[in-house]
What we know:
The complex is a heterodimer.
Chain A: H1 2-16, H2 19-40, E1 51-57, H3 62-71, E2 80-84, H4 88-96, E3 102-106, H5 110-114, H6 116-125, H7 140-152, E4 160-166, H8 171-206, H9 213-231, E5 243-249, H10 257-287, H11 289-294, H12 300-328, H13 336-360, H14 364-382, H15 393-398, H16 403-415, H17 424-449
Parallel strand pairs in A: 1-2, 1-3, 4-5
Antiparallel strand pairs in A: 3-4
Helix pairs in contact in A: 1-12, 2-10, 2-12, 3-8, 6-7, 7-8, 8-9, 10-12, 10-13, 10-14, 10-16, 12-13, 13-14, 13-16, 13-17, 14-16, 16-17
Chain B: E1 5-14, E2 24-32, E3 36-40, H1 47-54, E4 62-67, E5 70-71, H2 76-82, E6 83-86, H3 98-108, H4 113-126, H5 142-154, E7 160-164, H6 172-187, E8 191-196, H7 199-205, E9 208-213, E10 216-221, H8 223-230, E11 234-240, H9 246-253, E12 259-265, E13 268-273, H10 276-289, E14 294-300, H11 304-312
Helix pairs in contact in B: 3-4, 5-6, 8-11
Amino acid sequence: MRKLMVLACKEVLVTFRDVGALVMMLVTPLALTLVMMAAFGRGGSTPLSAIPVLLLNRDTGALGEALTDIFFSPSLGDLVAPTLVEDEAAARARVEADEVAALVIIPTDFSARVFPLATRAQALVGMDVTAFSPAMSLTPEQMAGLAQAFLESQAPAAPVSVEIYASPNWRISTLVVKAIVSQGLERLNIQIAGMTNIVSRLVAGTLQANSSAADAATTIGAVLAETVDQETGDGAADADLPIKLHITSTTGRGFSWLDYYASSMAVLFLMFTVTSGGRTLLAERQRGTLPRLLISPTSALTVLLGKMGGSVLTGILQMLILWGATTLIGAYWGNPGGVLVAIVSLVMCASGVGALISAWATTPGQAGAIGSAVTLIGAALSGSFFVRWNLPPWVQYLSLVTPNAWGIEILSRLQAGRALTALLPWLGGVLGLTLVYYAGALVGFRRQFR
Amino acid sequence: METTALVEVQNLFKRYTADSPYAVDGISFTIHTGELFSLLGPNGAGKTTAISVISTLLRPTAGAVRVDGYDVQRDPMAVRRVIGVVPQELALYDDLTAHENLRFWGEMRGLHGAELQSEIAAKLALIELTDRAKDRVGTFSGGMKRRLNLAVGLLGNPKLLMLDEPTVAIDPQSRRYILDWVKKLREQGVTILYTTHYMEEAQELSDRIGIIDHGKLIALGTLAELIQLVGQHETLRLQLLQEAGGAELAASLQSLEGVIQASATDGEVLVNVTSAEATLASIISTATGLGLSVRTIDIREPNLEAVFLHLTGRALRD
């Protein structure tokens, strides 16, 4: 055991003293993460159509309906395929089953909480303030009721949430749904700001309590015109209104390009590291250090396990450093315990690829070429360069022969907030793949060391 | 000198594949404790293969090898504990320092703690690299690396030290250092198996020499015993002005009276004769007759070169 540790530590030391290896292991993936994030950060370049989205409108007011109507507007006809639903549990189940991209839930008291003035005015004087126009005239009773409604609506209220319950497997679609809802909420915010401004100006004294109805009409018209101007101004959308967009997923988190590329680039360059680690076995044979090891009082198995252990340790250190570094620039990898388990499993599996290559290649050059080819093809298949969910299903299945695909799947789920226990089937898959790789490597090593 | 056999090689055969020729073809020899035994032969003669089998790196195809009483096939780990090997390659890690290299290889030999530290300090002092202990090996000269390579082989003070062509591709100064160092080890009683294709090294260092060619051990004995094989012959070394023509001259000289063997290599012709004085004139006449000019003639007393020429009909460097 001591010799095994010494061998593994030697591998790590030699690797981390190689400036070229450090650039490849740590600097390049970080740089590529930032470049990819800059390139795809807004996510607007991916072609999408007919995104299946469920709309659950529990609001009894006009604003909830206005929000759902946006999804049915002709301009979004090709982009989304909305369906109004009433059963929340069934709708959530459809999201969890990945049948639809997301479920948008508009809460029961949405209109009342977003625009309480309208509700109070309706209740006190039967007035629909959303229907103000310059031609309207107000009676003194209506003015008094409006003032009363305005005062009552000034009490602070808790923000109301529109929830987007999204599947982690429809990440780009979720971003599209989010954009639509955000745009709708922004439009509502502007309208509410305008109405509130009108009434506040009326109530604050622009309109005197004893003014005539004609004066009131004139004042309303002037204020409304002024407000319309403001709506089109830069600051209109920044009004501090109590509508918040709350995106959740089946597991509690949304999608981020930074998160995605931080982990996928780390997995890609982990593959470079472990395949390079496998190459060192052949290089040591060529350099003469492997034969020297094999004639020391150390078993061939210990030598092999030490080499592989070194590769695993190096890979784990690389992933931990990349995890830490990308976290510093804002990436989220998920629950730390889960990430640790995922990293160890993934590195074990990836080192199996390195072992397999070094067991069957005959020269370091051959191993290097095969390693690079395997790494790059695996990366392209599995989603290191572009999201794997955009690939045809058969490619997605094919990519599961690579550790990259499993790594990206597991880490993405952790990033979406899934618990480790929910990932056990995936971790089992990684373990199975690891065993397959090492079994193939064992056959090759027996051939080499017999 | 003790006469206990530390290494016993009996009828050893080794070939790499079933249809390849034997790299080692039925050799037998014994190395006694405290002895410096050289295996002398040209490149490809089978020296490294023999040393690889003795050191347990390769399995023999047939035959038996015992080191310190342990069979290399049945108890390889026990054999590895009593041997130290200095391979032809510089089997070191360039990214580690000299101290780290010695520590790593010491650990692989099963040393650790104070014993290992003491060994490292002693070996660094022995190879005069104590002041460079913390420098990476990649920054060392070829000679310094070669010395460190030797020191690694000596870690743990093995009973048998095997040196496989340790002076290949190094400068004369480093070569001299290594030869002196090997002689010191021999004086200290270390048993050494030394392989070389340099006749001078085998002559200078060895208690006994085995001459190996095409996998066969063609002669074995002390330097004096081997020279006896040639008898009172002398060797003429002719350097020609022309680059070509040596082989033709060697072939012509074979038929001359008094010429025992003749071979050509690298613009030189080696001629084994019964008497240099009696044959020199006819040799020069033969060369002139072939249109060749002799630049220098060197007359040598019988040596291992002559022995090899006598036994194989070829020069050692062929």
